[in-house]
Write a structure and sequence with these properties.
Elements lengths: L1 E2 L3 E3 L5 H16 L4 E8 L4 E8 L3 E6 L10 H5 L4 E7 L8 E2 L6 H15 L5 E6 L1 H12 L4 E7 L12 H4 L7 H4 L22 H6 L2 H10 L5 H12 E2 L2 E2 L7 H5 L4 E7 L7 H10 L3 E6 L5 H4 L1 H15 L13
Parallel strand pairs: 5-6, 5-8, 8-9, 9-12, 12-13
Antiparallel strand pairs: 1-2, 2-7, 3-4, 4-6, 10-11
Helix pairs in contact: 1-8, 3-4
């Protein structure tokens, strides 16, 4: 692993990297998913993005939340067989190179990340499926390049929408000295308890218990990579203060009114980042938006992957003939 002021280059041959890759392989094998890995060099800033490509068919772009890891989307990918899924590991996540988010223009980084991946895969346009921080990034991209976004599925509360923020314990990551005590709590000490953090995301214990041991092992390995804590600390300190989200990064009502692609919100009733009142307001502000309220937390694709997949398939089928349900997918 090599460093400069802004970028941390990942050593993919390091023992911790190899362990994470093995855990990812086992997780995808559990869901019977074959995938390819592509490394893309992004410019401005210059860093390597690790992108996963799963399946074949019409393309779907996935932009994950959190620190940027794509592996948590594996259960959802298994529900979307018949499409070509292109899943970005955002800078700092999923063995993409790390970045100090405080040293860059975050909105430009977001737009550049999505456009770089789309260009690398020769995608003029594509539907985007996203979550949380990935939802914020995808909305910024849709505002700048609306013609490139066919449809958009927002799973869970998009980060910083309509004066929402991260839960208080996460905002403490942006507080110097205090974050030295909080940050290690984000790194599981063993795989057996690596998924317990999901309770802070509004997931029920029942939903957590349903997840396979391979998901716990992936969480343990990826959340102990050397870039993980730096990603969280610099990202949270960039977009929030102890009092809430920074105004500069909030998705305002005016911005939502300018979102032109068709949007589906899949929003859980125990989402700690934003409640259903926020969800209903957001869906009313976006001209072409619909809302499906779910009995999940912030991560419906983990809590209820089958229901989430069914709703996404239905949304794609109803809103774009070109994205009609593949013949390989069971008819609902």
């Amino acid at each position: 692993m090599t460093h400069n002021q802004t970028i941390t280059r990942i050593d993919h041959e390091a023992p911790e990297s190899i362990a994470a890759l093995k855990a990812e392989e086992q997780l995808f094998a559990h869901y019977d998913l074959d995938y390819k890995v592509r490394f893309i060099e992004m410019r401005g800033p210059n860093l390597g993005l690790r992108v996963l490509e799963v399946g074949s068919g019409k393309p779907l772009l996935m932009v994950p939340g959190g620190a940027g890891d794509a592996w948590p989307l594996a259960a959802l990918m298994a529900e979307l067989k018949g499409w070509r899924i292109i899943a970005i590991n955002r800078p700092g996540g999923g063995l993409s190179d790390g970045i100090d988010h405080r040293q860059v223009d975050l909105q430009q980084l977001a737009v550049n990340t999505v456009s770089t991946v789309m260009d690398a895969f020769d995608l003029t346009q594509a539907p985007i499926i996203c979550n949380s921080m990935g939802g914020l990034w995808s909305t910024w991209f849709a505002l700048e390049y609306p013609e490139r976004v066919q449809l958009m599925v927002q799973m869970g509360c998009p980060a910083l929408i309509l004066n929402t923020s991260a839960p208080f314990f996460m905002r403490l990551l942006g507080v110097p000295l205090v974050n030295g005590f909080i940050a290690p709590m984000l790194q599981p000490k063993e795989s057996e308890n690596a998924l317990e953090f999901l309770s802070t995301q509004g997931s029920s214990q029942e939903a957590i218990d349903r997840l396979p041991r391979e998901a716990a092992e992936a969480a343990y390995r990826f959340y102990n990579l050397p870039t993980y804590l730096d990603t969280w600390k610099t990202l949270i300190s960039t977009v929030t203060t102890i009092g809430g989200g920074r105004d500069h990064f909030q998705l305002s009502a005016g911005q939502l009114r300018r979102v032109t692609p068709e949007v589906l919100f899949l929003w859980g009733d125990t989402d700690p980042f934003g409640d259903l009142q926020v969800a209903r307001l957001a869906a009313n502000l976006i001209p072409n938006a619909s809302l499906h309220e779910m009995q999940t937390g912030h991560l419906p694709f983990l809590d209820e992957p089958a229901e989430t997949g069914r709703l996404i398939r239905q949304f794609l089928r109803e809103n774009s003939p070109a994205l009609a349900q593949p013949v390989t997918q069971a008819v609902e």
